[in-house]
Design goal:
globular, 1 helix, mainly beta, nine-stranded mixed beta sheet, 203 residues
């Protein structure tokens, strides 16, 4: 943004206007980015509106839309509004744990899958909870049985909200308790290596 100086006229007493003196206005302070939480490339999240207490999500900024693995998808009308009912297996490699969810239908869109093919998907809006953070996101419903993660978090869901460390995992999301010990596993973070001084000298 260019600054146009304000010009002051110096008029001697009883005389004609004197030379013009430019008075610069103070420059505005540069805007700073709001501090954002740092997350890893995979995080444990919750979908409270869908009664999903824990699900592992892969953060993929290469995908625009977010996706949730769902099966037995059906639409129905209630009070003049279209709803979607579907089943979710929130845990990987576990088909016994099933959550029966339902949500209002937001939209129907064509989305490219991981293979590059376009497919028509139903879209819902729901709350996402990650650690102490919570905000609404849009989710497309699709079958992700062949994929490693039951949920994909696209760039539209995280843009202008979070920083992402592609080399770290589980930095903010609360991990579930294990079935054997009842304790929560330790967080996995990136390893930091310290430089060692060369032999016979100092850095």
């Amino acid at each position: 943004m260019s600054i146009v100086p304000r010009v002051a006229h110096c008029r001697p007493h009883g005389g004609s206007p004197g030379p013009q003196v430019a008075i610069d206005k103070p420059k505005p302070k540069p805007r700073t980015f709001q501090e954002r939480p740092l997350i890893g490339w995979r995080e444990w999240v919750r979908l409270p509106d869908l009664d999903i207490a824990q699900i592992k999500a892969k953060v993929d900024t290469g995908a625009r839309s977010s996706a949730l693995h769902a099966s037995n998808i059906e639409t129905y009308t209630r009070a003049g509004r279209t709803w979607v009912a579907f089943d979710v297996h929130p845990l990987q490699r576990d088909i016994l744990h099933t959550v029966h969810a339902r949500a209002p239908l937001l939209d129907e869109r064509y989305v490219k899958n991981s293979g590059g093919k376009r497919e028509r998907r139903l879209v819902i809006q729901t709350r996402l909870r990650m650690g102490d953070l919570e905000w609404p996101i849009e989710l497309t419903l699709t079958s992700r049985d062949v994929m490693g993660f039951r949920m994909l978090l696209g760039r539209e869901a995280v843009r202008r909200r979070l920083w992402i460390d592609p080399g770290a995992s589980y930095l903010i999301g609360e991990r579930p308790k294990t079935k054997t010990t009842g304790e929560r596993p330790k967080k996995k973070t990136t390893k930091k290596f310290k430089r060692k001084p060369a032999r016979g000298g100092h850095e």
